[in-house]
Amino acid sequence: AVVSTQSTGARERVPLSIKYHLDYLERQAQRHNCSQNQAYIHTWKNNSLSLRFWMNILKNPHFLLDIAQTPTIDSTLNIICGVFMDSCSTSDKGLTKDAPINKLLYAKEIPQYKKRVQLHY
User: Fold this and answer.
1) Please, which pLDDT band fits residue 86 given cuts at 50, 70 and 90?
2) Among 40, 61, 43, 41, CA closest to 51
């Protein structure tokens, strides 16, 4: 699985620092009268944690690890990043037979990943 390898129950435990960050964003949404629109809150959470932090680490493993990023590794990481972005997205893009093969590889798993991401948000 791309998003997680284990499930510990209906609501998985989120590290306290991340929970504090997500709660802070919800308080800011209430403060600025955006709390009725869940799409705003989801986008804020997505941009601050998933896209800014995790996507950067996934796309650039050499930031953390002493590895050479070959073209093969780069292509593989691009596919993983695409799955991660699709899993965190609120929109549901329909796939057709003309869709890129990397989108079709994980098309059946994306709805499961989206549910898991939603548990954290």
Assistant:
1) confident
2) 43
Dihedrals φ, ψ of 84, to 5°?
-60, -45
CA-CA-CA-CA torsion for 27, 28, 33, 39, nearest 10 degrees?
A: -90
Structure tokens at 89: 């997205």
Quickly state the pLDDT bin for 72 (edges 50, 70, 90): very high
Q: 106 pLDDT exceeds 60?
A: yes
Strands annotated E in the chain: none
Distance between CA atoms of residues 80 and 73, nearest Å: 11
Examine the pLDDT at 80 and tell me if it is beyond 80: yes
* Locus of tokens 């919800």: 26
DSSP annotation of 61: G
Residue 14 CB neighbour total at 10 angstroms: 14
Instruction: Quickly tell me which residue has 């620092």 as its tokens.
Output: 17
Report H helices in 32-95: 38-45, 55-59, 71-88
At 2, the amino acid letter reads V
